């Protein structure tokens, strides 16, 4: 087990290159399974989720290898074993994104329910219903979905009751090779979903966004290999923007598109954090003080749930009470307990609402990371704190942030990793 040792209080200054987006690349890798031609993905981040996806795809019989530093080549010529095991699903829920492409291309797949038999939190019912709408037969036994479509899938109308990002993407990945037209209502508009659409179109798929929340797909018989560059990670960029603001520094981020941050930019501006767009990213500066704000998480272009916890650290530095309303997940306020240990004043009203009082001086403490975004949050808090923090559960951060401590050290932070 590894830990971060962070001594706070140093302003972060300089520039940082934002890596390719985790929530795009995993779906782009899955898209490469739709063709027997080789695909080259560029700007692939070195994060553990990509390594897990690589192993899962290799076990299926696909060739996946890193070439030239930031590129990954995938050749999904044939599958030996249309099976995604429980081990993969336990490590990474997004392994479920292979359901659509494997089913539509090969006509069957056995795939683990992420979390095994634990249905309830973060279920995949909407993915499964979408495949059934497309004509698949799906049986659920012993924690596995046995999905079959021996005659191939056929186009259908899929209406999600609310926006699901991976649900939309799974339906899309299946529909591109289905016979006829598929219409997806209440489709996600996340930049990562649009990156996937861009790659699928380049592979030969016919996809139109006929309304902001509607996708229309005309199935084709086969898709071809492409070269595609993964978009920059907006969530990593949001994290560094907050790091500049809470440490009193100035950070320039390159390799990302600030419009991908949606409502986050308005919130940053509203709190009084000065920023400017650059040719290739964003420059963010600290101010002497910040205004409190109220945020409600929502699908893109609303305020991203993945930046809700990191923003709470900035809220601790604002002058007054800020309010959080988490609308996407039921357990995304657990990190507040760790922030409170560090001196934050946060009242959690119920599983969805919290009030953060500021400004407060944060203090170095021993804290534990419970998930990826909570990890970024505790690192931010430790950078803003007086004294030294010891942060356990670093492996959660490695899932989605490429070399976070090396990037922070280059900006002047005092952070290092130890084996514990
Ligand atoms: N939901 C269901 N049934 C389903 C699918 C989703 O009830 O079949 C519920 C979820 O439990 C949740 C809501 O619908 O309450 C929305 O979930 P969504 O399906 O949109 O989430 P996701 O696609 O599984 C992606 C990102 C998450 C991000 C969410 C929301 C990837 C790999 N993951 O998850 O990212 O929080 O969208 O924007 O794209 C992260 O990066 O830390 C992360 C968790």
Give the topology, please:
Layout: E1 2-7, E2 13-17, H1 22-31, E3 39-42, H2 48-60, E4 63-67, E5 71-75, E6 83-84, H3 86-91, H4 99-106, E7 108-112, H5 125-133, E8 137-141, E9 144-148, E10 157-159, H6 165-175, E11 181-185, H7 191-202, E12 206-211, E13 214-218, E14 227-229, H8 234-247, E15 250-254, H9 263-270, E16 275-278, E17 281-285, E18 294-296, H10 308-315, E19 320-325, H11 336-341, E20 345-348, E21 353-358, E22 366-368, H12 372-384, E23 388-392, H13 395-398, H14 404-410, E24 414-419
Helix pairs in contact: 1-2, 1-7, 4-6, 5-6, 6-7, 8-10, 8-12, 10-12
Labels describing this entry:
420 residues, 4-stranded mixed β-sheet, globular, alpha/beta, UDP-n-acetylglucosamine1-carboxyvinyl-transferase, Chain, 2 domains, binds uridine-diphosphate-2(N-acetylglucosaminyl) butyric acid
